[in-house]
Amino acid sequence: MSKRKKAIFVLVWLLCAAALLVSSLVIGGASPEESIKETMRDAVLHDTNKISLFGIMDVNPAVISAYTVTFILLIFAVFVRIFAVPKFKTIPGKFQILLEEAVGFFDNLAKGNSPHKNYFLGAYVFVAGAYICIGTLFELLGLQGITTSGRSITLPAPLSDINGAIAMGVTSYLIILSGGILGNGFKGVLSTLKEFSLPISMSFRLFGALLSGLLVTELVYYYVGLSFALPVVVGVMFTALHALIQTYVLTMLTAVFYGEVSEKTPKKEKIKTKKRRK
Length: 278
Known about the structure:
With 278 residues, the chain is mainly alpha-helical. The chain has one domain. The chain is 66% helix and 4% strand. It is built from 9 helices and 4 strands. The chain has helices spanning 3-26, 36-45, 61-84, 94-113, 121-137, 162-184, 186-193, 198-222, 230-262, and strands at residues 51-53, 57-59, 144-146, 152-154. The strands form 2 sheets. Strands 1-2 form a two-stranded antiparallel sheet. A two-stranded antiparallel sheet has the order 3-4. The chain is globular, with a radius of gyration of 25 Å.
């Protein structure tokens, strides 16, 4: 693409963005049902808008999202294993190249940061990365759920709930702990337990990043004058960035800490000193 075409493309994009912003400010509408404080509180705590889980119990909308994303990934994996993998060739096609690049990226991430005892680390960071990325992009589908009060809400990302983020952080910490056991036995357990704040930091980093995008989008939707076209740009931008960044951050941290605790600690040489008789 020449410089002139690039300049025209940027100019057209800026004009479209300006037109969307002006139109969103001009459009008015009815006042929101909830105050901004209630909207933000429910986006964090989910104490008002709950969904019935098969009539058994009322759960947060993120739980429904988590089950849906897990089901989608499992069905996709089964179909790939049954129908796609047997047809792989020496000269790969587009789908085979895409799949091999994704697997190779996470496998190299695991081996590069943890060359010791990384038997299943590559598989775990691949699964965790796929879940975080697909789970974050899931909210862009705009799937609707009916709350117990009869309201229709959009299903959020699974990890925008603090419980889902904590579960992911604790699971990653247990994987790191297993690396310490495989590499150094009891000493590896002690060295891993020293990082007791690791699951907390990983959980809240993931939760805070995804929640910030959700709150910004909720804030834009709340003000009707901005809810005409701007949420499309804001929502897609925040969601896509968080999906890529948080996938890389959590998998990288897991691989790095796993490599530190699984590395064989050198044995201290016992130096025998001879006492000189006077």
